[in-house]
Each structure stands twice: as C-alpha cells, then as structure tokens.
Amino acid sequence: MTAKSGRGPPKNPLKRLAGYIYKERWLVIVAVAVMVAGSFALAFAPKMAGNLIDVLTQYVRDGYTGLDMGAFVIMILEIAALYVFGNCATMLSNRNMTIVSRNATQRMRRNLHNKLNRVPISFLDSHPSGDISSRLTNDLSTVESLIESDLLNLIVQILLIVLIAIMMVVVNPLLAVVYIVLMPVSFLLIRYITKKTKKGFKLQQSTVGDLNGFMGDIIGNHALVKSYNMEEVSERRFSEINRRFHRAYVRSKFASGFIMPVTLIINNLGYICISIFGAYMIIDGTLSLGGFTAFLLYGQMLGGPLQSASSSMNQVQSGFAAVDRLFEILDVEEEPDESDLAKLDVSRVEGRVAFDSVTFGYVPEKTLFRDVSFEADPGSVVAIVGPSGAGKTTIINLLMRFYEINDGRILVDGENTREINRDELRKAFGMVLQDSWVFDGTIADNIAYGKEGATREEIVQAARTVGCDTFIDVLPDGYDTHISEENSQLSVGEKQLLVLARAVLADPRILILDEATSNMDTRTEALVTKAMERMMEGRTTFIIAHRLFTIRNADKIIFMKDGDIKEVGSHDELMELDGLYADMYRSMSSS
Fold first, then answer.
1. Phi and psi of 415, rounded to 5°?
2. Please, are residues 467 and 431 in contact by the beta-carbon 8 Å criterion?
3. Main-chain phi, psi angles of 307, to 5 degrees
4. H-run or E-run covering 541
5. Average pLDDT, stretch 70-96?
6. Measured between alpha carbons, how far is 477 from 442 in angstroms, rounded to an integer?
7. In degrees to the nearest 10, what's the CA dihedral of 133, 138, 143, 146?
8. Burial degree of 457 (CB within 10 A; 0-12, 13-18, 19+)
9. Out of 136-150, 189-203, 315-329, 359-373, which region has the weakest mean confidence (pLDDT)?
10. Which among 262, 328, 270 is positioned nearest to 119, based on CA atoms?
11. Backbone torsions φ then ψ of 428, nearest 5 degrees
C-alpha cells in the first residue's frame, strides 16, 4: 500500500488509536480514575486483613479479654467496603470503556468507509475485496475489544502489580525483596516473548483476510465452481489457505502461550520462598501472624494480575496488529483534492469527446498507450473493438478519470478533463457494465440509485423508457419487490434492464456500454439491445463489444490492438478495407 507523503501520523499504534479515543477522553479519565481508586482499595485490603488477624491473635494471647468489639466490627466492615468498592469500580470502568470503544470504532468505521470512497480505483483493483472486508469486520472487531477491555485491563493489572509490590514493602521489606527480584525477570521474559509474537499476530490477521476473500469468491460463484467440476480444486486451494492460517495461528498462540506459564512459575517460586522465609521469621518473632497472612494474601493477589496481564498482553498484541492493518488503509494516498478545479454544467454538455496524443501505462515502466488519438462527435455512437488486452476498457478508465494519463489530453467539449473537477466530470457519464450489479433493496431503490432524490414518477418513467416496466408490473410487490445480488427473482436480462433504467434516470450526456449484453442469450440480448438503442438516442455513446455484429450500425468503429489504434471507420468502410477488423468479423461470422 502506498503511504501518504510527508511526515504523516505517528507510527505507534497506541498513539494513533488515542486520536480516535480523544473525543471520549473524560469517560476514559473517569474510568481510569475509578480503576486506580479501586486498585488502591484492593491493594490496601490485605493489609487491613493482616491487622485484623493481629488483633485476634493478641486477643487470644490475652486470654480472650480486652477485645474492642465495636472497633473489631468496624475493621471487618472497612475490609468488606474496600473489596466491594474495588469490584464495583471495575464494573463502572467497564461500562465507560464500552461506550468509548463503540464510539471510537464507529468513527474509525466511518473514516474507513469514507477513505475507500476517496482512494484511487487502482488501489481497489490491486487489493482483494475479501481482505479489505476482513479489515472492516474482523480487524475492527478486534480493535473494539482492545479499546473496551484489553488495553485498560492491562494497564490496571500492571498498576495492581505495582501497588501490591509497594504494599509488600510496607508489610515486610525483607520478604518483598523476593518478589522485587523475581518480577523484573518475569517482565523481561514477557517483553521478549511479546516482541516475537507481534509479527505472528499480524500474519494471522492477514491470513484471515485471505481466507475470507477466498470464501467470498467461492460462495458467490458456487454454481460456476460446480459447473466446471472445480470442487476438488477449490478444496485444495481452501486447504492451502486454511493451513497457512492454522500455522500462523498456532505459531502466534504457541509463542504467546509461554507468557502465562512463565508468570505462574515465577509467581509460584516467589510464593514458596515467602512461605519458607515467613515461617522462619514468625518463629524468630520478627514477623507477626497478621503480617505473614497479609503477605500471603498479596502473594496470592499478585498471581491474578500477573496472569491477567499476560493474557491481556496477547490480546493487546493481536489488537495492535489489527490497528496496523486498519491504518494501512487510512494511510493510502487519496485522489487529489480538486475542489478548486472548474465545475462542469452537465446540462450544457454536448458530448464531443477527443483523445489527443494520449500516452498511458498502469505502471510507469510499462506503457500501454502511445500517442493515441481519436474523436467522437456529439450524439454519435463509437464502438471500440479488438482482441482481449488491446486496451478497450482502458479507454473507459481514462475517460472517467479512474486512472490519470501520463501525457497528452482528453477533451470533453474542448475542455481538458484534467482541468475539470473529477466528481463533476463523472456526472456527465453513465456506465452500463457487463455485470448487472444490483444491491440489497427494492427494485425502486435500485433504479433510483442513478439519481439522488428521484421521485416515484421519475423511477417509473425510466423503467418504461427501457421496457422493464413489463416484468416489474407482474411482480407481487411491483416496484417495492425486494431483490439482492445473491437472492433475486429476476433473470440476467431483467437485471440488466434495471441497470439501464438506472442510467436513464441519471440522464447522462455521454453513455458507456461495456460488454453490456455479453452474458445473455440471443432473445434476451435482442430485448436489451432495443432498450439500449432507445437510451442512446441523442447521447454520445461508447460501446465496447466482442460480438461485432452488435455494433455494425455504429457511426465509428475503432479497432485496437496492443494499446494502439489500428483501424478507424464505419462497418462498411472497414470491411472494404479488408484489414484486421474484416478478418475478425469474418472469423466470428463463420464460427
């Protein structure tokens, strides 16, 4: 992915994530403050419990006399209050962080969606849709969990460890030395392991994207897979990706799995040492039973935060890997801002189009077009034909400014398209592609996609123009019939008629038909072709077609090969020329 030029945002994932959390900073501050207070309460409770035991021990030594029952009950209530407050603090902070995570990821999701609308088509063309979808779902869900619980839990557990260590020093400095010596060893080992696992977690998230992309392709084209008997091939491909995911998952989890055992071993060693030294000090009289009990409670308490911190460290590493993958999208260089470029009055566009010595290549080191020039008069029909890879679709990509030319000019009504605002320019064009894309919604919604705020009357009129009202009217819910790409009551031809109605509603001055009838049978193609002919009236039209008999009536036919225009003329003129076009036409007619 291409990063933005310049200094750019900080690379530390925590700093980058903080930018999305900043708006809820007061909720975060309250959550952290409450958790700090709760941690202090939990850390101080064992010391109080030790004092309580010392009071009871003294009461027994004094022959069960001299106990201040009121003070004793107050001590018990104070200990209970500390534990209740500490755990209630956890619930309150979790509630706050849930709100923070929802709002932060909502903003990030919106930014990601908006970003994808601003990135060049070249980025979407060069990245699998399944991987991008995985980032917007799986990775974003992981980040949500990171903000909601993992990160705060890690901070709180580390704070608890520090507080417990301080209280250990307060209770008995000599015994505390045991843990103070062992804890740095534990943290150094954890740091070493997490450094090794970060790369593994990122590979794991990336492989999930590959897996989702493959499954999306297979499920969406299941009939095609079965028709070609490719089940075994797809199974092998799936197994290969699944094995990669399994290896990445196992390696990252196996390495990170050392964290908890390491912390447990070190904590248990410390616990054993405390027991041995503590027992000796009690016998020696330098440590009270209450102090020893408090220290044992701290030793027991320390195990929980260490285990929780080590577990959270795994989740945080996975979360940071997801953050990196999301910011890889947010760092992609956007299409340049063209708000200062000239606007285009679409209502006054005549539709005169010209390529003037255009040079272009998808990659700098490989030029596809060299000095390509042609003209299309207003209202004329221009067909672009040629073998696969000749550059036919590239002509359309350049017309729409999906890609920028390297040299030369593309003119619309005499104006250089690079000097016209990109969004305004595209309003003059309407596209009907080979794949008849419909989305989840009603038939009316799908037609209205061509014009924001379209009325029902305009939708119905567009449908009548291309003739798709005939099949819409017989549907049970008419224009309110619900359809989707995966589940539709419509045939391929009927879907394409809907797409044509969508383009009619947009009322473009220049129409692009890119293999619009290539997936249809002869009868359906004839129906759609008639609809297209009605739609083409008065509009400059570019037709890309493999079946040459569909474009015999075009005003101009451009024959392309290897990124170069080889022949230009009407059908009769090119047949009389008896060149490349004539050879291709005769070969198709005889097949």
1. -100, 135
2. no
3. -65, -45
4. strand 540-544
5. 87
6. 9
7. 180
8. exposed
9. 189-203
10. 328
11. -80, -10
Q: For the chain, how many helices (H) and strands (E)? A: 21, 12
Three-state secondary structure of 418-486: HHECHHHHHCCEEEECCCCCCCCEEHHHHHHCCCCCCCHHHHHHHHHHHCCHHHHCCCCCHHHCEECCC
| CA–CA separation, 389 and 386 (whole Å) | 8
For 506, the token pair is 């947009």
Rounded Cα–Cα distance for residues 409 and 353 (Å) = 11
Count of CB atoms within 10 A of residue 171's CB?
22
How large is the angle between the packed helices 289-330 and 173-220, nearest 10 degrees? 30
What residues have CB less than 8 Å from 574, skipping those under 6 apart?
A: 557, 559, 567, 581, 582, 585
Single pTM value for the model? 0.66
Q: Please check whether residue 31 is in contact with residue 100, taking contact to mean a CB–CB distance below 8 angstroms.
A: yes
Q: What is the largest CA-CA distance in the chain?
A: 126
Of the candidates 365, 359, 413, which has an alpha carbon nearest to the alpha carbon of residue 391?
Answer: 359
Task: Measure the N-to-C terminal CA separation of the chain; round to a whole number of Å.
Answer: 45
- How many alpha carbons lie under 13 Å from residue 88 in its C-beta half-sphere? 7
Q: Are 252 and 208 in contact (CB under 8 A)?
A: no
Q: What does the block give as tokens for 34?
A: 């409450």
pLDDT tens digits for range 175-212: 888 766 766 676 677 667 666 666 666 677 677 767 77
Distance separating alpha carbons of residues 327 and 9, to the nearest angstrom:
10
DSSP 332-392: BPPPPP-TTSBP--GGG----EEEEEEEE-SBTTB--EEEEEEEE-TT-EEEEE-STTSSH
How far are the Cα atoms of 376, 400, 412, 588 from residue 380, in angstroms, in the given order?
A: 7, 18, 14, 25
CA dist 182 to 23, 265, 305, Å? 40, 10, 15
Whole-number Å distance between alpha carbons of 26 and 69: 43
Whole-angstrom distance, CA of residue 181 vs CA of residue 185: 7
CA nearest neighbour of 545 among 382, 362, 361: 382
Q: Closest Cα partner for 461 from 515, 408, 505?
A: 505
Name the burial class of residue 238, with classes exposed (0-12), middle (13-18) and buried (19+) by CB atoms within 10 angstroms of its CB: middle
Of 369, 366, 413, residue with least CA distance to 390: 369
Taking a C-beta distance cutoff of 8 angstroms, is the pair 531, 497 a contact?
A: yes
Element holding 19 (H helix, E strand): helix 13-21
- Give pLDDT tens digits for 346-390: 778 888 999 998 998 888 778 888 888 889 999 899 989 888 778
